[in-house]
Amino acid sequence: MNDMLAIEALRITIAGRNVLRDVSLAVPQGHVHGLVGESGAGKTMVARAVLGILPAAARVISGHIAFDGAEITHMSERERRALLGRGIALIPQDPMTALNPAFRIEHQIVDVLRHHFGLGRTAARAQALELMHQVHIRAPERVLRQFPHELSGGMRQRVLIAIAFACRPKLIIADEPSTALDVTVQRQVLRLIKHLQARENTAVLFVTHNLGVVAKICDTMTVLHAGRVVEEGSVEACFERPAHAYTRALMAATPRYDQPAAALAPVPEALSRDLADEATAWDARHGAA
Amino acid sequence: MAERRIIQATGMRPLVRPGRVTLGATILALLAFAAVFAPLLAPHNPIDQDLMVSFLPPFWSDGADPAYPLGTDSLGRDVLSRLLYGARIALTVAVIAAFLAGLLGTVLGLLAGYFGGWVDALISRIVDIWLSFPPVLLSIVLVAVIGSGLHSVIIAIVVIDWTRFCRVVRAEVMVQRNQDYVAAAVTIGLGRWRTIVSEILPNVAPLLIVLFSLEMGIAIIVEAILSFVGLSVPSDFPTWGGLIQEGRLYVNQSPWLMVFPMVCIILSVLGLNALGDGLRHRLDPVMRR
Fold first, then answer.
1. Residue B259 lies in a domain
2. What is the pLDDT of residue B289?
3. In terms of residue numbers, what domain contains B239?
4. Which residues of A touch B191 (CB under 8 A)?
5. Fewest CB atoms within 10 Å of the CB: A67, A132, B121, B258?
6. Residues B235, A49: Cα–Cα separation, whole Å
């Protein structure tokens, strides 16, 4: 099975501080891989590193990122641009700000299609309409004529999913695509992503802090803490036999419908301290503070 | 709101909506009309002298001549005609200077705001240095050096006032570029220039319209100052500032010579400021949530 995305011992610093400590993960073709962790664990940094939109202060110290077998870690901006959209696409986190407020939806989808496929205006418009159908938007003609601020969060997220799938990419990075939505809409959006992913056989790196979401749509997963991989494997294995104390703690902190809310337990302080100590020890071993 | 209160208080809908945009647009339209059709509207040639009819009072005073509605000056030239032709120069300068200042300021502001780093540092320091010169003095010195005339007046205004656009655009671009839609544009493979011009610029456009309107008002004042000190167009050609300068000599004898051009300047600037201010309020909530 060939890996669409393979990250190997990736180490990234921001202003001299380690934010990713030798992170490795692989997303095989057609698989959905969950990247889980609490805020600040480095999930988004992994996503941004793959997309080549790291913050200006971030440095890739070592490690490799390979897309479809080709090394992309130190690609020039121009080369990477050719890859983005058609090779790798993003479903962004916040549907409220990810669409350009100045343009109608139609313009934003048609623009992508014309840019990547050189389609004519009419062809691109037909294609946009087709995409709207695929993401189950009712009254697509009307939505295409609307501005982003006229749409609900769920609708905007559907539009963003349509844009991400528009160029039939091989890999999609989904950066907390359901976090900003309410629960019922969240469910529909997840289903939609899963459905399109399965049909197009796309590889998806699914970044989230929500283990429930991972259980629902991911095949494999990586648990990240303080920029280190603490657990990885298939979703069933990780849920049934979590190897690391932190994974178990995370699961205990996830609400379940079949258990009272009182059963929820925060991550124990002693464990957090141990993990922080391990991170410090890692830094000491690798020479950066 | 204001409209509703009026309807409640009087039981009638106001004839004209009380609004700054309406007020400003009306004044601007009148000004433009006067400027464009000055040759048709003016009852006399603005530079024709007739010493037999010098110092005629305006139409409501005793001894007024209906052929000269706003009276005549020391050389018997028709004041109304001179004001109308003065509007031409005022408006020409205002439009061209505001456009060029806007162009220069916007380009530099976009660069500084988008790229940040040393580009921003360089442009911002230049702006800081620029702002430490007293603007009126700078414009007078500038025109004195490059010679008088309409070109010089426009150049002087552009050179002084591009910073106004630059600062505001830079700040706005910095806000916009952190919006997800900019990252999204990059991740669908758009280049930097495309992102700046076709994604960010349209979102800055409402601001530019407002600034342009305000800048026209400022340009009218600067033009009046420069023609007052005799550094604008040749002196027999009518400008509002020039009219004030001429009227100054006879302020005890016929104060109207000075009052009319002052009223023209005040009304124009008031109108343009009201328009800019009103547009700012009207355009803001649509674009920003």
1. yes
2. 39
3. 25-283
4. 81
5. B121
6. 66
